[in-house]
Amino acid sequence: MTMLPKLTWTPWPAGLTHDRWASAAKSLRRRGRVVLLHGADMPRDQCAAWCQSVREAGLIAGISVDIHDVATFLPEVAAWGPLLLVLQLGRGDRPQLTEALASLARDRCPTLRWTTLGVPRCWLGGATADLELQDHAWPDDLRCTSCAERGQCPGPVGEPPVLPRPVAVSNQFDVVLGEHGELALEIAGERCRGAILGATDSAVMAQALDRGQLYLDRSDVARIDDFSEQIQLLLPDGAGVWRPAAGQPFDREEAALRQVIAGLRGLVVDVGAGPVRYLGQLRSALQSGQLRYLAVEPDPQHLARSQTALPEGQFVRGVGEFLPLPDACADAVLWLRSWNHLGDPHRAVAEALRVARPGATLLIVDNVAFGLARRPEQLQRAHAIAVAETPFEHFRNDCATEALQVVRQVAGNGVEVVQIQDVELGTSNQWLLQLRVTPPGRILE
Ligand SMILES: C[S@@+](CC[C@H](N)C(=O)[O-])C[C@H]1O[C@@H](n2cnc3c(N)ncnc32)[C@H](O)[C@@H]1O
Question: What CATH number does the domain located at 256-366+393-437 have?
């Protein structure tokens, strides 16, 4: 069977550098022979480096300075096999090129097929972050329903870019309950002492205790999750004795968070979505078409499970530092407990600002370090598993004010604070920072 040449074109994204293309090119090669052409507007200093990266990826590069060159060049290369053509075109060039292609197909190259869609996302993996698809209507484009590869596309093949990882830190330390220790506690009316254990930085532990972030582990299981109902906040009284506080520790902070999520509309990008916890708040707006939900998550297992739990959503493998989205398309960007997992939060904020529309919501929620008070047998059981299996996954223990500093360093006054709920005595260790992107909405790096 003769494979029909396929021609795909996309406007050349502004600011795209050859490094990013090098990774795109490698991804493209998996699809067979590919020809990349670029137009005259490419900055001269990038041109040589770009050609080099194309050659290193084993591709064939041609340079077209004029769309009429394409018309001359195409009949020959189209006979070589599947063809991807990426062109930098002014908007005015588009009809002209389309006409040139139509006449080529009619007169000289009857096997030629083309589409005016952008490059299929799945071809480019992580590098799609750089492809502006603004000519293409949402939501079809995002869903790939009108993509030329529909039905043949192997699905996402790209790996998220490998990012430099800072040194990971723990966000938890233990306080073992017994007769000795620095802390005085009263649990179920009984006085005891708590000894602070752990390899974590003592300044982090002191800060957590200053903020009243000590919890009593009431569970019988070896590993508790972040929102276990089996942990209870301990608070120091005026005399420095720690006692269990009434109620579920996360109720208030979770209610505030649910309220913000329930009010979101438009395209919501959930960075580091993990297991997608807020289905109840998302579903009705999703079903009524007022909300579109896109999860960007590096962990394929989370993605697969979440896709099953929320089939109305869209799930893309990626990282917050390189969002696979065009500029100014998102109405909200969320980092729900993923902020302190970001290798490069500055880069992630710049990406969020790039994809956010003016007026969009940025919502950052995370936890600061906390202590868990446990009986010796609970501690032993937990450590048998946790130490062996759970590497530290946090790179920071930022609180809301620290996260705001990072955002300000990138965005300056390009965002305004809608609400900030930081961690303090009497709150849980979960904080919330809600921001609004102010017009003009794009803060360039
Ligand atoms: C503690 S989980 C939070 C999951 C979920 N958002 C929630 O609220 O429960 C942190 C998530 O961040 C993801 N993550 C880690 N590094 C990331 C990065 N650079 N960009 C985006 N997500 C990342 C992890 O895979 C994980 O799913």
Answer: 3.40.50.150
